[in-house]
Amino acid sequence: MNENFPAARPTADLPLDFEAFFQREQKAFLALACFKLRDRRDAEEAVLEAGRRMYAKWERILAHVNPTAMAYRILHGVIGDFYRREIRDARVQAFAEPPDRPDSSYLKELGDHEPLDLALDELESRAPLQANSVRLYHLAGLSYEQIAERLGTTPGSAKVSVSIGLQRLKEIMTKRSGRDE
Q1: Is the CB of residue 51 less than 8 Å from the CB of residue 72?
Q2: Mean pLDDT (whole number) for 28-49
Q3: Phi, psi of 141 (to 5 degrees)
Q4: Radius of gyration of the chain, Cα coordinates, nearest whole angstrom
Q5: 154: pLDDT confidence band, cut at 50, 70 and 90?
Q6: Fewer CB within 10 Å, N side or C side of the chain?
Q7: Closest CA relative to residue 29, chosen from 149, 136, 110, 158
Q8: How far is Cα 54 from Cα 61, in angstroms, rounded to an integer?
Q9: What DSSP string runs through 2-47?
Q10: Residue 131, Cα to own-chain centre: how many angstroms?
């Protein structure tokens, strides 16, 4: 191997800076993945896969202008690929397994989130920065400075993105509820 392509490091030898970074971001990663995937086990698996990819590209991430934004881009890619990979590996069954809970109240909980999910998906297709800003602010509980760092913008831009994103979400949801009546 040469300096451009160093040999792979053993997994037991995690660099302290990666460990500190991943521990610091893990809650926000998990909150975002849980919101997108709606299942905690799938979200945990996606976050772990994203962490593996981040570790493999750690030097590249550190060399990036905004390392945190690059890490979040990797997480978004893993989340996007998650179910496609599951289907491709034939681990997803054609029919859902019975729920772990004896009641089906969790289905009601998921149904209550559907309008918001659909509105956020529509917003993301039109304005991904605004959708991600809203998710990070309201679902992960991050500050504008933290959002700016993760999305590669300024705190002012993050604040504007959250504000405009919320306005657009209200418009989308109002339009959708008007169609349903």
Answers
A1: no
A2: 88
A3: 70, 30
A4: 19
A5: very high
A6: C
A7: 136
A8: 7
A9: -SSSPPPPPTTS--HHHHHHHHHHHHHHHHHHHHHHS-HHHHHHHH
A10: 11
Q: What is the pLDDT of residue 15?
A: 59
Calpha distance 90→124 (Å, rounded):
28
Q: Give residue for tokens 């400075």.
A: 145
Q: How far is CA 30 from CA 47, 163, 180, in A?
A: 6, 23, 33
Structure tokens at 87: 């289907």
pLDDT of residue 179: 66
- The tokens describing 73, both together, are 């881009």
Burial-class residue 53 by CB neighbours within 10 Å (0-12, 13-18, 19+): middle
For the entire predicted model, the pTM comes to 0.56
% of residues, the chain, pLDDT over 90: 22
Torsion, Cα 40 20 69 144, to 10 degrees, reads 80
Tokens of 145: 């400075």
Which residue, chain included where needed, has tokens 């698996």?
A: 45
Q: What's the angle, vertex CA 52, arms to CA 51 and CA 55, rounded to 5? A: 85
CB distance 64 to 93 below 8 Å: no
Neighbours of 148 (CB within 10 A): 23
* Contact status, residue 79 vs residue 46, Cβ threshold 8 Å: yes
DSSP character at residue 104 = -
